[in-house]
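Entry 14. Structure prediction run on the chain below.
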Amino acid sequence: MCKPGRPMKYKFLLAPLNDNRIYCPAAIVLEAMENGLWRPLNNGESLQRQKLRLRHSLARFSRNHDFPYEGDGLYIMKGQAPQRGWYGWRWKAACGL
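Output returned:
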């Protein structure tokens, strides 16, 4: 059963995720940029700031949809500490895909 509320704004970013791969919010943003699914707006806001806002939105999404706090596993990005991540199927299921 769907929860009432606003339609998912970033559903198009979650649709192409691989069901059996772990993603953290930053990985979703990077993959979307690499695949041409998301481009920064030309609104005077820096690229770093726009990416940060999108990552924060996805992190809130994971909390609001009761993803397990410990994550499904760790996602390791070069030069950064390991981050909690969740399988693609969990991201998709939370937005009704």
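Helices lie at 11-14, 25-34, 47-64, 88-94.
Filed with the rest of this week's runs.
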